[in-house]
Amino acid sequence: MNTYYLECISCGSIFNGVVFKCPRCGGLPVFRYLTRKFEICVKKPGIWRYSSHLPPVRDVVSRGEGLTPISKLGGVLAKNEKFNPTGTYSDRASSVIASYFLTNRVSRVATYFEEDFTHSLAYYLSGISELEVLVREVLSLNVAELGAILNMGGSLTTVPNENITKYLDYVNPLTVEGLKTIAFEIVEKKIKVERIVVPVRSGVLAYSVYKGVRELVDAGVGIPYEVVAAMVKGESVPYITKLIKGIKFIEVGEEDVLESIVKLDRKGIKTKPISALAYAVAENLGKAVVVMTMGFKTTSYYGQRNANVRGEVYRIVKEAGEVTAYGVWKKAPVYTLRGIYKLLHSMERRGEVCSEVMYEGSRKVKYYRLCK
Ligand SMILES: [Zn+2]
Questions:
Q1: pLDDT, tens digit (0-9, with 9 covering 90-100), for 323-341
Q2: Which has the least CB within 10 A, 9, 62, 252, 350?
Q3: Which positions ≥6 away from 50 have C-beta within 8 Å?
Q4: 3-state DSSP call for residue 103?
């Protein structure tokens, strides 16, 4: 018996199996679960701790996505999605897509190049499905991302392979299921704010976070956070979010985004304009957690590699549950032990990890873990 069905958010058509696009109107079908009971299974990896409200799959592909830290940034809280394996929230979507493809033995996938998402997908599908990336505009390619995609076995073409008639679009029901786990994590931590602010872009992130919040409220365990989509003046509201009355749109001017970029830069934070945009809106409103990706500038001897070390150390702590600095170093011995100590210390200051001192005999030992 099916535990879910799909419903088109545009025309309301119902489907018993998974469809990626509504055959009647071209709209987005989304998952509806028959169970309302929300369960958290902490033993399952990554976002799959929320399996009761994710598409049922036999084979789970998790590569350390999710459980990203929430730390104070000026007057608001920031959920830093940089701590996902490829550095963006797309990894949450890719985990659900890869699990679905592995379960259904999909051996070949074609997709149009989309910044962040394609890179993430290549990482998750590596060893599972062959990925053919179709490029619309060669000049818009991000060369660093492209290199990463090719390294992971993706192939590249400007002309669609004639045997391929179906393309995986970033906006699809599995992406929504992955991205909504951002809301689940905020609810699980019972973050005391009134709203969640996200950049609007294609609208799929705002819609997904809104869906996550609603599902938990319906299950009786949620907090009815307001979902705010931040946009630049003059940007048009994407069709997905237009359909949802519960999402609030707030516009700011381009000069506000620039100001926000400069402000964050002064705090030593490197971020993309869309994150700076969401931050500007969150700061104006207050009582908010903002979903963003931010890296930290550093003058330490790690130099450019620091961002990667930080992500790696975070994943080691997450996987271990609790671990000493020495334990972290043993798993990542390419760095110096002193460097690991310093890094954990700075991560603790930023609220990215927490620690607890325990006694082993008469010896004090400091254990690091993710913050509760
Ligand atoms: Zn439809």
A1: 999 999 988 887 888 889 9
A2: 350
A3: 38, 40, 41, 181, 184
A4: helix
Integer Rg of the chain from CA:
21
**277 CB contacts (<8 Å, ≥6 apart)?**
199, 230, 231, 232, 252, 257, 260
249: left (phi over 0), alpha (psi -120 to 50) or beta: beta
CB contact at 8 A, 298 and 269: no
DSSP 163-175: T----B-SSSHHH
Task: Measure the CA–CA gap between 353 and 371, rounded to whole angstroms.
Answer: 6
User: All domains of the chain, ordered by start, with CATH?
Assistant: 70-87+174-296 (3.40.50.1100), 303-369 (1.10.10.10)
Q: Which of 102, 67, 99 is nearest to 85 (CA)?
A: 67
Phi and psi for 215 in degrees, rounded to 5?
Answer: -60, -40
pLDDT tens-digit readout, 107-140: 999 998 888 999 999 999 999 999 998 887 777 7
Query: What is the Å distance from ligand 1's center to 14 Cα?
Result: 9
Which helix (H) or strand (E) is 285 found in, with range?
A: helix 273-285
Ligand 1 midpoint to CA 77 (Å): 37
Asked whether residue 230 carries a pLDDT value surpassing 50, the answer given is yes
CA of 21 to the centre of ligand 1 (A): 8
Adjacent-strand bridge partners of 21: none
CB count in 10 Å sphere of residue 264: 21
**Distance between Cα 173 and ligand 1 center (Å):** 13
Nearest CA to 211 out of 193, 235, 231, 187 is that of 187
CA atoms within 13 A on the CB side of 335: 27
